[in-house]
Amino acid sequence: MAGMVSQKLIDLFRKYYRENMIDPPELISKREVGYMTFSGEVIRHLRVNNKFELNMLLRDAAPMHVYSSAAYYRKPDERKMPEKEWEGADLIFDLDSDHLPGAEKMSQRNMLAQIRDQTSRLVSDFLMDDFGIPRSSIKIYFSGNRGYHVHVSDDRIYRLTSDARREITDYITGNSLDESIVRKAISMLAIVSGGWPAVIRRELGDNANGGMIRETEIRKAIKKAREDHSVLIDSPVTYDIHRIIRMPNTLHGKSGLIVREVPIDRLQDFDPLQECIPEQFMDGEYDIILPEKIRSVEIGGTEAPRMPGRHRVKTYVAVYLVASGRAVFP
Amino acid sequence: MIFPDKRQILNSDMIREIAGASISEASGSDLNSEYASIKKAAFAFVEGAVRGDQSYISLENRELAFIIWILVAIDENIITARTIIKARDTAEKQLIGAQHYEDLEEFGRRLGIDISVEGEQIKKDHLYRLDVTDFATYASRVTGSRYRLSNQIVRAGYVYVQNDVMVKILREAFVSFLFGVMDQIRKEDAVTLLRPVSDDLERIKEAYRKAHGSGASMGKGDASMFPPCINEIIKNLESGVNVSHMGRLALASFLHKAGYSEDEIVSYFRNAPDFDENITRYQIKHISGEISGTEYTPPKCETMRSNHLCYMDDDPLCHREWMKHPLTYYEVKRRNRKIR
Which pick of A129, A274, A316, B317 has the fewest CB atoms within 10 Å? Predict the structure, then answer.
């Protein structure tokens, strides 16, 4: 946003909030709510009691970003953490395609597809297969811009400490794998098979059968297993049990796209650049100005203009380009 | 063998009778003399813990119950921490020596941890199965790769571990249990109930003051420039929290690298629940290279993180991309101050 905040963009966001009734996250009255205005002001420590109050707030503020805590508090509107009285928290995973190795050189479509596959593996391999979390406790959301958020709400996990959550993030990223200890676990796989030791044994292939596994072989297998099997999550989001995260069904201020739930069985072919455009932005056209040439952007099935100058584009293209800082309204 | 039993620990009638029992009483019933010896054993245990006595003292359920009330009545962090660590170690020894896996199952059941055995018990070719959330909760308090979730067999919500790992999990769950039970006893109630033994309580406090009364004198260095991880370890040690081995190693090697002397480093460890000056000095000499010949460097940030020793919160310096080592943090802060 080159200096000035565009009133047109704020008006479009307000239109979205005026014409929709946003469904709040479960137990909204126990969560801390916060938002950022288009002028950059951050407001936190709000308590919102119900759907009605939330929608009043959003219509009034027309915020750029909206957040709520993964945590449940007795007093979410206290300003100091200890006084909020933490009661528990959902388990949250943040997958951002910006963190993919080589992301700078990838196309937007490729980045989103890769991070979608990682999200899919997180849910099926780690959360459901390894941790035994029931499908019904898992919700996947498009983050609104470049990735996905996975929310787990389950009695088994909601009291987990920050340290316990670190144990889980370490597991998913394949951190702390130790050669000699993994070797020991591999020898136990005959009793029951699972986890990293099973993945590493698969990487070892025939080498695993000879009984003695050479040091260099296991080291190589661990490295390979991590490359193939680990999932690129932003760990602090998971183990910070007080963090506020983007609220589902709100708009991402840097894209104008909806933070929308993706049914687990629809993830494989989900295209956020088609399916997360608000209805309010489908009609009409706007003039925008591109100050300089931009990289290829495809949204809603249309290729956005790339060359510097004035262009007339569909509303959602205008919102996307202006919100992401690529273009300005004249 | 101890089997943690919350109802028994919270049984104030029993505690009152143990506190009032006396060996010399003429009308002494069997129960009275039994209670008197429980009382004696409980005080001996706490005193041993305060003195830093490393020898093994056996412990049974009612002794443990009375010990918990003593700790609440005294209400001194460091005495509590040392005693609980000693109780923990006692339970651990008992669990290691347990002849039947049912003992571990029963111990776990009382702590709310569901354990079962997978494989052939008789051939010693078996693993313990426990819920992945129980594992994550308690293993996170034990340092070392052996206890990391990544290195375990995990499947369908369960973790499968060998005996030694299971014992460590139960040990940590036992500590949580003890602190949890203590929270349910009000200090006033404990003081009232233990009035008959107020002299013994005073004796323990006095022994503690003698051993640690001088208070730790902090080294002269620039603690204000220490990274949050090191400050957290120092804070925990000061308040008698049992810091992990890796945490202690990090602190000692950090202080050494920051130019602190052996005496100064020792002073930071004086309040550790298991403080032993000779061992501490020996270990510091090891870290400084005086014995080992290799000078230790504190672990890098990544290692600190996976051992749950990173407390960066929102410290901006910690969040810099190039910030990879606690010593870098210290150096950067010192350099910046010099410039100013």
Answer: A274
Pairwise CA distance, residues B242 & B317, whole Å: 27
Mutate to test the interface with A, among B153, B179, B312 (most CBs of A within 10 A): B153
pLDDT class of B27 with cuts at 50, 70, 90? low
Task: Enumerate long-range contacts of B160-164, CB under 8 Å, 24 or more apart.
Answer: B160/A188, B160/A191, B160/A192, B160/A194, B160/B118, B160/B127, B160/B128, B160/B129, B161/B127, B161/B128, B161/B130, B161/B135, B162/A184, B162/A188, B162/B127, B162/B128, B163/B96, B163/B104, B163/B128, B164/B96
* A81–B contact, CB cutoff 8 A: no
Considering only the beta carbons, identify the residue of A132, A176, A193 that sits closest to B151: A176
Q: Residue A280 to residues A15, A257, A312, B145, B235: CA-CA distances in angstroms?
A: 7, 11, 18, 53, 54
Write out residues 177-236 of A within 8 Å (CB-CB) of B: 177-178, 181-182, 184-185, 188-189, 191-198
Q: What is the rounded radius of gyration, in angstroms, for the C-alpha atoms of chain A?
A: 22
Sign of torsion over alpha carbons A168, A171, A173, A177: positive
Of residues A180, A186, A188, A190, the one with CA closest to residue A203: A186
Size of interface A-B (CB pairs under 8 A): 116
Q: What is the SS3 assignment for A79?
A: coil
Q: Which residues of chain A have pLDDT under 70?
A: 1-4, 207-211
Q: How crowded is the C-beta side of B217, counted as CA atoms within 13 Å? A: 6
- Which residue in the block uniquely carries the two structure tokens 């690129």? A232
Question: Angle at which helices B198-212 and B61-74 pack, to 10 degrees?
Answer: 70
Q: Note if A154 is an active site residue.
A: no
| Gyration radius of chain B over CA positions | 23
Strands A32-36, A65-69: pairing is antiparallel
Whether A94 is catalytic: yes
Q: Which pLDDT belongs to residue B287?
A: 87
Query: Nearest Cα to B223, choosing from B252, B255, B250, B247?
Result: B255
pLDDT tens profile B103-139? 999 999 999 999 999 887 666 678 999 999 999 999 9
- Residue indicated by tokens 């929310």: A151
* Neighbour-count burial of B118, counting CB atoms closer than 10 A to its CB (0-12 exposed, 13-18 middle, 19+ buried): middle
Question: Which of B268 and B336 is assigned the larger pLDDT?
Answer: B268
If one counts every other C-beta atom within 10 angstroms of the C-beta of residue A265, the result is: 7
Question: pLDDT for B260-314, tens place per residue?
Answer: 888 889 989 988 877 888 888 888 888 888 777 778 889 988 888 878 888 877 7
- Centroid of chain to Cα A134: 20
